[in-house]
Amino acid sequence: MVQWGFETEGNEVVDKFSEDVKGRRFVITGSSEGGLGAESAYSLARASPAQIVFMGRSWEKTKSVVDKVKSIGSSIDVKFVQLELDSLASVRKAAKEINDDASIPQIDVLMLNAGVMALPNLQLTEDKLEAHFGTNHIGHFLLANLIMPKVLAAVRPNPNGEIGGPGTPRIVTVSSYGNIFSGIRFDDLTFGNGKEYNPWKAYGQSKTANILMTISLNKKFRSQGIAAYTLNPGSIRTSLIRHLNDESTKSFMDLLAEHKKERYPPKTLQQGCSTQLRAALDPTLPPNEEIFFLHDTQPLLKGEDVKVLAAHSADTDEAHKLWDLSNKIVGEQF
Length: 334
Description:
This protein is α/β, with parallel strands linked by helices and 334 residues long. The protein has a single domain, classed as 3-Layer(aba) Sandwich (Rossmann fold), CATH 3.40.50. It has 10 helices and 10 strands. The strands form 2 sheets. An 8-stranded mixed β-sheet has the order 3-2-1-4-5-6-9-10, with helices on both faces. Strand 9 and strand 10 (298-301) form a beta hairpin. Helix 2 (36-45) runs parallel beside helix 3 and helix 2 packs across helix 9.
């Protein structure tokens, strides 16, 4: 019996929902050793998925992860697709590779896990977007929509005519309780061209965007049989912390004090990946607009826990506005 909470581990989640892993196909962005994407894959490999597709910047940083997955489950078809989320051209190329690959007939779970955090100074992507927003949100927004046909291909008729339950394809986006630090600055995404830049507010804006995108995904695709969830994995020592220094750490603590929040204790990688795995696998999670965010492996109702989910992050009007802006940025009409 799994006790859902802070200490739940990814292996426990997979063991409980092993039938929801067996024979299914997973696509995971973020493939480096020591990250939540890799750790999620190690847990999934215990239960015989048919396929795991890693999408990441570097094959060199992914090879050891692929080797470990294969050592856990030798029958798993493991693939790597090169992807740089801070380049719309790279996202389009990667999406085309996925869509054109007949050996990836469908995507049962799309786990949008990759990201950057707390870049000390304003950085712009090659598409002139603030780096957190461009990488963590826009890159994933474009990718998810471009490969949506493969997610839709995983939809199976439910005998009761209901959406949800075993086999429902899912889009799981890893957000953060950093969403509390900033809503979407629709008129100033680059923080006054850096003059008002704060690394945690920039990160927070992108994490709010992850949540708002999930609201829109549910609204647009729920009726077609897809469920979308987002989550706070907690505080974990992954490669995301590589940009931290004394100044950014102080800024983080100052923002926590400003928002009257406490710093969460750290989790292990196994504890950290458990929440996104439950979001990806648990057939009892209802795919509706009221339950879409998970924290410490547990689903929250809108407004239930303002400690980790800000009101601006659960605003359906903001979600609609962000979707329109994202379409404009990528030059598409999804």
